[in-house]
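Progress note, sequence design subtask.
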């Protein structure tokens, strides 16, 4: 292997320290940031994620609350649960975990969020601000990807702004919550942007495009979709995919990414592993956004006070 394997756990630990310091600074002003998650039904991955966030929130000193709704929840009740959290002064940021049950419209629930507490930028107002390059909150997975890009280039004495303005950034996967926000962020950084999805693959064009990327980000959710032969020598390769795969020998399930790590690492300058790459940074960033929401709410409150409201 010639590439640097980026240590997402180390990057996340640094972020967690910064978040804990911000929480301590807010505590001096009697403010405690609070994270709320909304979960409906019994999806295993969502439950695991929810428990991990609870632990992290408590570790950095945030208040935490979970609205756990049954799988047969009515849409109106899911919206009411969000409304309750909007009104709760202990809650600074709200995460609605996907998937929601089929009878509940994601868009309807997202619209019910207070945009000031919408730390994943799923409310249309926040999505619009993100698309315009003026985000109120940068959603956590896209933020984790750009955190890796920025830190990796800075640590190797390159200015990320300059590098990205000269780079082709290729994104594989175009979901509303992960792929598209990354495209908006790359446009805001003046990168030359290529966005691929399953149609690109079916059209037989995926691998020509991935091979041109200076920075390649895969968020397709397809185990080992891309290997060394599909990437440009010297690429910075970031793997967002988290795919459970059964080991035929041991019979156990383990997680792999969208990249075939070993063969990509033979050609890349740097690559993120799965697990231990984007995932832990995503979690830390969600708490960072929670703290940011608390800071913004406190600043707005102070401004209202100064104006005598
Ligand atoms: P999604 O299913 O909503 O979207 C997948 C996207 O990939 C779609 O745009 C689809 O068209 C595209 N795609 C599917 N097959 C393809 C192929 N063969 N070639 C090219 N494009 C293809 O998924 P999502 O919510 O965006 O998540 C994507 C992956 O990222 C999943 O593995 C998920 O578990 C993982 N994920 C990781 C984190 C993290 O923090 N590391 C966070 C969120 C999601």
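Output:
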């Amino acid at each position: 292997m010639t590439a640097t394997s980026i240590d997402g756990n180390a990057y996340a630990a640094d972020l967690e320290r910064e978040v804990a310091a911000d929480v301590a600074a807010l505590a001096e002003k009697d403010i405690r940031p609070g994270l709320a998650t909304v979960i409906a039904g019994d999806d295993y991955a969502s439950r695991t994620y929810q428990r991990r966030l609870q632990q992290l929130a408590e570790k950095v000193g945030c208040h935490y609350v979970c609205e756990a709704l049954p799988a047969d929840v009515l849409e109106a009740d899911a919206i009411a649960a969000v409304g309750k959290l909007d009104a709760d002064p202990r809650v600074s940021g709200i995460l609605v975990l996907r998937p929601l049950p089929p009878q509940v419209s994601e868009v309807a629930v997202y619209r019910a969020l207070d945009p000031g507490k919408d730390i994943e930028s799923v409310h249309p107002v926040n999505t619009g601000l993100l698309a315009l390059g003026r985000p109120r909150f940068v959603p956590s997975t896209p933020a984790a990807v750009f955190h890796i890009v920025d830190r990796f280039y800075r640590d190797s004495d390159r200015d990320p702004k300059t590098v990205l303005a000269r780079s082709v950034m290729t994104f594989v996967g175009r979901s509303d919550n992960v792929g598209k926000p990354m495209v908006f962020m790359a446009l805001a950084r003046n990168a030359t942007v290529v966005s691929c999805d399953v149609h690109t693959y079916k059209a037989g064009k995926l691998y020509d495009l991935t091979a041109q990327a200076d920075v390649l980000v895969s968020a397709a959710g397809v185990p080992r979709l891309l290997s060394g032969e599909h990437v440009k020598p010297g690429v910075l390769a970031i793997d967002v995919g988290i795919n459970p795969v059964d080991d035929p020998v041991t019979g156990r399930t383990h997680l792999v990414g969208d990249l075939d790590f070993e063969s990509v690492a033979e050609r890349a300058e740097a690559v993120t592993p799965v697990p231990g790459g984007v995932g832990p940074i995503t979690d830390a960033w969600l708490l960072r956004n929670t703290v940011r929401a608390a800071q913004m709410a406190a600043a707005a409150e102070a401004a209202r006070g100064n104006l005598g409201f």
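The chain is about 45% helix and 15% strand. Work on this subtask will continue into the next period as scheduled.
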